[in-house]
User: What shape does this take?
Amino acid sequence: MSEVKPQKRDITAKDVLWYIPNQIGYARVITAILSFMTMQSYPIATAFFYTTSCLLDALDGTAARKYDQCSGLGAVLDMVTDRSTTSGMMCFLCIAYPQYAVFFQILLAIDISSHYMHMYSALTGGATSHKQVSAESSKLLHLYYTNRKVLFTVCFFNECFYAGLYMMAFPDHYTFGKWITIVSTPLYLFKQFANLLQLQRAALILANIDAKAANEKKEGKK
Assistant: This one.
């Protein structure tokens, strides 16, 4: 008599919420909030929590692939946490360096806008992930999004640049922060260029989709 194998139950929304990579995402949110809470007066604690949140960014994707737990929730949580963490830091920098507030505001606006439009254009265009960028579309963005080591390194040093500026706001940590900022500058500038490039690319993709839809609508009226 053959052995009857037990059937696997269906995956529920609760299962997805507690996927291992999503739990890592929640840990990133918690450490980011802790960095905001200590940011005003405790630079060492802030540096620890902020850096931890950024470093955990390298683990959620790895865990998703290892445990076959990729999810739309995880992808959005990852991007939203990235943007929120950076936004929190830049809010402080606007206070610490009021003479450069407009500069930080513009960079933050470009950062949020480019990532939102990039994700929206990718999903509207039929991609299953915002990280699906063909080399024909953009060689630089293809390298940036498909090579995990490049993506993590650029994003990490982008955050290190802001963290260095943060440390410079405290006299006792000025020199340390200055060197972090200097070392991080090249990849920070690369990240800002990538933001502008993906903003331009996303706008072009959406315009092409709109033009195609308008032409189809026009043909349908004939």
Observations:
- The chain has a mean pLDDT of 89.
